[in-house]
Amino acid sequence: MSNDVYVVGIDMIKFGRFDDAKPESLAAQATLLALDDCGQTIQDMQAIYAGTCNGTMMGQRMLHYVGQTGAPVVNVTNACATGATAFREAFIAIKAGLYDTCLAVGSEKMGKGMLVPKNSGGTAIPTEGLLGSGVMPSVFAQMGMEHSRKYGTTFEQFARVSEKNHKHSVLNPKAMYQKETPLDMVMQAEMIAYPLTKLMCSVNVDGAAAAVLMSEKRTRELGLMNRAVRVKGSGLASDPFTDRNLVMQDVNTVTRIAAARAYEMAGVGPDDVDLVELHDCFATAEIPHYENLGLCAEGEGGAFLDSGATTYGGKVPVNLSGGLLSKGHPLGATGIANIYEIAQHLRGEAGERQVEGATIGLTHVVGLGSACAVHILEKA
Amino acid sequence: MNDISATERPVAPYTELDEAGKPYLLGSRCGACGQTHLGRFENCPKCGARGDMDAVKLASHGTLYNYTIVHRSLPGVKVPFVSATVDLDGGGTVRGNLIDIEPDPAYLKFGMPVDVVFRSASTAVADGDGYIAHFFIPAQEAAQ
After folding, report:
1. A326-363 burial: b if 16+ Cβ within 10 Å, else e
2. Is CATH 3.40.50.300 the classification given to domain A5-113+205-231?
3. Average model confidence (pLDDT) for chain A?
4. Residue A142 to residues A138, B25, B64: CA-CA distances in angstroms?
5. Which chain B residues touch A112 with a CB distance below 8 Å?
6. Which of A144, A234, A273, B106 is most deeply packed, by most CB within 10 A?
7. Is A296 a catalytic site residue?
8. Is B85–A191 a contact, with Cβ atoms under 8 angstroms apart?
9. Is this prediction's pTM over 0.80?
10. Overall number of domains in chain B
11. Among A324, A355, A329, A325, CA closest to A342
12. Minimal CA separation from B118 to chain A, in Å
């Protein structure tokens, strides 16, 4: 029997704003959904990997809501790659033969407004607006501008990403928003950081997602293989040195490294991938990531989008969930929520969003600082 | 060009004052790989060489590598402004406000030459009194 690892149960709560909730209470809801998805109990979880970007001991607190079993809990934080990192730790533990059944859960209660890097770089006074801008829209606006500089990508093309992903979200009942935003609406929305308008920025929402991972042996013993999804490849990378990385964060190179690792482990290439959930925290990010993930040739991301390759019926639909732009982006939950979306398609349970015959899907998240996680999942 | 008083202190840890009290951007150059970084480093982030970094005075001229025009920022921050990433001549990359230019993509050209100038931080932010900061302006020799 192989040492393959499977996702046997996975779910997410509908993303939204839950003012009275705590990260651990949202995590508990997602955990119970994931357990029910595979008929397991919290007592069956031999180890728990819990991700959140704010606060400590979220995993243990989550157990106060669902049962304190004494299982080892590891709390994980890795910026926007937090959930995917927790998932990967569960995968590694099973792959190593330590456990047969693990839970990975991610949760976040988001504040209002823009995210600001915590480390001010040792300056005497706050530097936002003084030494340029370090808020997230500005960082990712520059990611788009760099692509424009190299390849002539236009404001309109970036706006089309947002139009597409918002359109996708209409069919996803678990997305924060299920509203179409026509191109002119996107382009005419309030400018935040050129070329990003408000409708090209992901939604700050609360949310949680959880997954039960299992060894092949246990999956077979329990008869769970018919809905199982194989974790075929897992790549994690930190940002290597690149020329401007210390001043202008480079999420391209770190993505390429993580993707190469995941493809190598999976033994597949970009052409084998049927659908992708990638990190569209801002609309400018999606087009460069087509290239970073090898979905199209270098410099052709804009044309790839324009061709319709990344929407329904295209070569490789991207962000059918609505993406972070419309589904929402609760940091710690995002990495598991996008695995949930892929799993639904591979199981043939994605409803109106279903990519027919999908057998391989890819998820990608990247957190500034930086951390990138790529997972390749296969129908079992 | 440098409209500052002797009592003002630099905002950024990578801004130093020379013997004459004139500010400049400080960098570190790796003796092993030759890479120049903004600020002080003990060891090289590029190649990992240990203890082989020389402090260098970075150039006050460079080119605009990248930018965004910030229309919404944190509460209290004056907008719009141009947040620019500049490659300095001879090495080192710095972020700062590009001023004395319309905050409009029609006026901002990738690769355009810029000068580094130091001004009171109070010209950009409300709580900047007593501090100096670097800014970029369109290169004067290239100006019409």
Report:
1. bbbbbbbbbbbbbbbbbbbbbbeebeebbbeebebbbb
2. no
3. 96
4. 6, 23, 12
5. none
6. A144
7. no
8. no
9. yes
10. 1
11. A355
12. 11
